[in-house]
Write the structure tokens for this entry.
Amino acid sequence: MECSRQMVVVDTLKKPDFLLKLGSNNEVFDPRATLPVKTTLKVTVYMGEGWHLDFRPTHFDPYSPPDFYTRVGIAGVPADTVMKKTKPIEDNWVPVWNEEFEFPLTVPELALLRIEVHEYDMSEKDDFGGQTCLPVSELRSGIRAVPLHSQKGEKYKSVKLLMRFQFV
């Protein structure tokens, strides 16, 4: 019997120079220091699609289509760390949010854009609908189809968000 191997490609990011070198007074980088904003990331969440292809019709709600909302935020130094969310779109497998968020960033080199989709559930814990995490330093301005992953990190076949990234 032959074993099949799945190749996993891992992108690596070089540490920023300020983490590798001492400052002019032999100081090391302090992530809690008050720093000026270097750039602002504007993120627009337009819409999502693909859940009806990757999940059975009753996965999120046995009686109606799902009520999806998106959480978007930054993981990074304490001054940059924040989470925001869209309003839930009721009863729709293809939710359209058209919501824009701004994230002022003091250390964009260490910032990750966190994206999560959940299905709002009034009576129980909200259901997980997908996630991804993108290094801000790797984002390019423009409209993008962003694939989402399961809680185990497995990429869904069809689930994507249509988003726009801008640096101002």
